[in-house]
Amino acid sequence: MNSLNKLFQKRITIFILPIIANIFFFSLIVNSVKGQEETTISLPEVEFVEEEGISFYVQLTDYLINFQRRVNTEVATHMKAIEMGEDLGAFFFGSAIAFAYGVVHAFGPGHGKFIIVSYFIGREARVRQGLLMAAQIAIVHVIAAIIIVWLADVVLKAGFGIGLSDVPGVRAGSFLIIFGIGLYMLYQAVQISLNPSADIENEHNHGHSHGHSHGHSHGHSHGGRVEGGIMALAAGMVPCPGAVLVMLYAVANDMIYPGFVLVFSMSAGIGLSISIMGVSAIIARQTVTRILEKSGGRHGGIIFRLTMNYTGAIFVILIGLISFISFLDVPIL
Amino acid sequence: MDLKFKYCQMLNKIIALFLYSFCVCFVGRAYIYANPDVWVKARITYYFEDNLVTQLNYLWNFDDFFSSRTIVKYDRNSNGIFESEELALLQREIFDPLSQFNYHVNIWKEGNKLKKIMAKNFKARIQTKKLVFDFSIPLMPPADPGEGPLITSLFDKKLVLDFSLFKKKILIVKGFMRPSCKFQIKRGKRSQNFSQIVTLKCSKK
Fold it and tell me: Phi/psi of residue A103, each to 5°?
């Protein structure tokens, strides 16, 4: 019995030991292969360096960008708060943030600033016309954003999908209208330059009559208002993509009312920035004309006006044309 | 008296020109920056192999608004996941068109800017209601940061997208990186069309 036991133990040792050795050997191989596949992941130390000699303008730009980045998140948070019926504070604070966002955002490209500035450089206008046009652009901006989002919503529900760049007709139309107004301004500039004295007289009489005869002024400024209205429509009909995204977010999350409130506030902010630009252009032109007339007589004033008429018209034409050409060339996200 | 009058006249003209130039310049300069509509937070992963950087991986986290718009459009069954068909459409319509802008990725290898950048391994996912893009830029041939700095910056020249690096875990290294390698991030280059420039430098072997 004992000898049988010993034989059994020996055989087990003979069979089992190689198996254990094999397992050990294979586990070594597997581990080494695994080790080769695993890559070390580390978080390196990073040194931050401030660029030397940063101009005030760059610092301001960085500040504006950072401000917008923070506010962008805040707008979403406040939209949710308004929807959840939180106190009036959320409503007013959210609106104020959206307004500030609009003011800062409008200082960037787009939103009709260049158009309004070029237009008022090339036109004899009053401050209130600048304010009126800015308000018109802001209102058209809101309406355009809502219409586009409404269209997007309808089409999305139909299952096709629409992007910001999927409304090319609006963009193309806007650029062509701007181009057309530029051509009209150029035509007028040519006409005025053929008989500059008559135009100045006309403007002087017109300005004088403003103070005394309200009815008369209506008759004269009517054409300007129509032209200004078309300009505002053209400049504002391409909605701010930021406002469209906010509105789309509102629709997607079923927050139409806060979305509308915040987009309206944002557009009011955009309107304020545009009006600052427009009014600056008007005041600049008025001031320079006045100074030149005082210092160099009427001749200097006339030359300046004519030059600015052409400059404004050429700028408006270029804005319309270049925008249209780049619209044909470059797809937008 | 005549001289005084002429002097005043000249001074007035100078003031007028200055006023006008100031207004035009101010308006002109305001046009340039500060208008992004889509906000992205990014992270870069450096892949090392034999002390060479073989690829860079980019992770983009989009803002609430763009995320919402994109998720609604491409996650058609609203299950919070981009299925293969949805992902393919998203890639075709949103990501692939970015190739014409080099995916807003700027890379300088040993002093030379890469002209054509090709992205690979594009993935997109929805993470806490936000859109996340993940893609790689292979460096062929691999970059040797010991021979010259490897510089990268995310910047959209059209300023539709704004990129900022994450505040934490900004950079990740996969693989073995020599201890002599250092990362540096420069701020304030926006005026020269690039921002948050990341430089990797290593000492020679």
Answer: -60, -50
CA–CA gap between residue A298 and residue A280 (Å, rounded) = 23
Of the partner residues B36, B72, B175, the one whose CB lies closest to the CB of residue A156: B72
- pLDDT given for residue B92 in this prediction: 92
When pLDDT is cut at 50, 70 and 90, the band that residue A15 belongs to is: low
Q: Which chain B residues contact residue A46 at CB under 8 A?
A: 170-171, 183-185
A–B CB contacts, 8 A cutoff, strictly below: 190
Query: d(Cα A166, Cα A154) in Å, to the nearest integer?
Result: 14
Residue B162 has its nearest CB partner, among A69, A121, A287, at A69
* Residue A301 in this model has a pLDDT that exceeds 60: yes
| DSSP strand pairing (A41-42 vs B38-49) | unpaired
| Contacts with B42 (C-beta within 8 Å, 6 or more apart), sequence order | B58, B59, B60, B61, B154, B163, B164, B165, B166
Beta-carbon contacts of residue B101 (< 8 Å; ≥ 6 apart): B156, B157, B158
* Residue from B143, B171, B156, B54 nearest A42 by CA: B171
B52 φ, ψ to 5°?
-110, 150
Closest approach of A219 to chain B, Cα-based (Å):
31
Measured distance CA(A115)–CA(A323) in Å, rounded: 11
Q: Cα(A161)–Cα(A67) distance, rounded to whole angstroms?
A: 32
Instruction: Report ipTM (2 d.p.).
Output: 0.70
Q: Three-class SS of residue B187?
A: strand
Smallest Cβ distance to B68: which of A241, A249, A296? A249
Contact A294 B35 (CB under 8 A): no
CA B55 – CA B135 distance, rounded (Å): 10
